[in-house]
Automatic annotation (TrEMBL):
Organism: Pendulispora brunnea
Pfam families cross-referenced by the UniProt entry: CMD (PF02627)
Alphabetically ordered keywords of this record: Oxidoreductase, Peroxidase
Keyword Oxidoreductase recorded: yes
Name used for this protein in its record: Peroxidase-related enzyme
SUPFAM superfamilies: AhpD-like
Top-level taxonomy: Bacteria, Pseudomonadati, Myxococcota, Myxococcia, Myxococcales
Length: 181
């Protein structure tokens, strides 16, 4: 049972409406997470601005793979449904690549290094080893790219925590728990 309410459009604070409308127009419907997050224009608009900025970081396959890995570590079933859907339909990742990403890997060596690094950042709360940093640099990521990976980890963690706290009804197809894959 949800711990907060996904607002109806007429209930959304005025300061959240333009952002929510843009998402609804882009996606084709209003996901429960966004309709609930819109209750706080400050938090919702800050997250949306971060999402918009980070949509220019790296490539879509790497971003979605990082989202899957982080959501798996954080145990966010809502975000796993969203990222699995977007990874398949927007990033065009095949099913086996989605499973690999959830396990913290990728078939492409460069993307694999980024996903492994992101997973280590979330698992260690940023207390990575020098060898972890070297591994991601060795495949061609600059320090600016590494900062983008860290920012993606933080952004995905924000929505993971939001959804874990409020336990909203999922509006994307369910996914199999990683332990059963």
């Amino acid at each position: 049972m949800p711990r907060t309410t996904a607002l109806k459009l007429e209930q959304v604070p005025a300061a959240s409406k333009p952002t929510l409308h843009a998402f609804t127009k882009n996606i084709g419907f209003t996901p429960n997470m966004m309709a609930a997050f819109a209750q706080s224009p400050i938090a919702f608009n800050a997250w949306a601005a971060l999402l918009d900025s980070l949509s220019k970081a790296l490539d879509v396959k790497t971003r979605d793979s990082i989202g899957l890995a982080v959501s798996e570590v954080n145990g966010c079933n809502y975000c796993l449904t969203v990222h699995s859907f977007t990874a398949q339909h927007m990033a065009k990742l095949p099913a086996d690549e989605i499973i690999l990403a959830r396990k913290g890997h990728a078939a492409d060596p460069k993307r694999d290094a980024a996903v492994q690094f992101a997973r280590k950042v979330i698992e260690t709360r940023g207390h990575i080893r020098d060898t972890d940093l070297k591994a991601v640099r060795d495949v061609g990521y600059s320090d600016a790219n590494i900062m983008e990976i860290i920012a993606l980890v933080a952004m995905y963690s924000l929505t993971n925590f939001f959804n874990n706290v409020f336990d909203l009804d999922k509006d994307f197809p369910a996914v199999t728990p990683a332990g059963a894959i």
